[in-house]
Amino acid sequence: MISSGSTLEVSDNSGAKIAQCIQQSGRSWGIGDTITVAIKKAATKGKVAAGSVQKAVITETKSQLQRKDGSVVKFHKNACVLVDKKSGQPLGTRVLGFATHELRARQMLKILSLASRVL
């Protein structure tokens, strides 16, 4: 689960590399949740600059995800995809990491269509 202050890798080609969750709340977030992040590290040429505040959808977490069929999904890193603040559409044109089927239940179909690997 992701909590306030967690560091995430950005798994799209928007230009951001490392993001930190800054949303102020007592709960933790899982795959498919939209959070507010601060961009800590970014490429010199890209849509997003370091130090900016963006919205992101969590795509991978280190904690286990228990599915209804009994299977367990666990990743080696925490990752997210940056999305537009108003429309919720991804900022990048490719999703480089994994995307899970739990995004389909949250109506994040554009992220699933851009991902090359869907679990």
TrEMBL record:
**Signal peptide annotation:** none
Q: Which SUPFAM superfamilies does its entry note?
A: Ribosomal protein L14 (SSF50193)
Q: What sections of the sequence does the record tag as coiled-coil?
A: none
* Species of origin: Coccomyxa subellipsoidea
Alphabetized NCBIfam families for the sequence: rplN_bact
Is the keyword Zinc-finger assigned to this protein? no
| Membrane-spanning segments | none
Similarity remark: Belongs to the universal ribosomal protein uL14 family.
* Name by which UniProt lists this protein: Ribosomal protein L14
Keyword list, A-Z:
Ribonucleoprotein, Ribosomal protein
Q: Pfam families from the entry?
A: Ribosomal_L14
Q: Which InterPro entries match?
A: Ribosomal_uL14 (IPR000218), Ribosomal_uL14_bac-type (IPR005745), Ribosomal_uL14_sf (IPR036853)
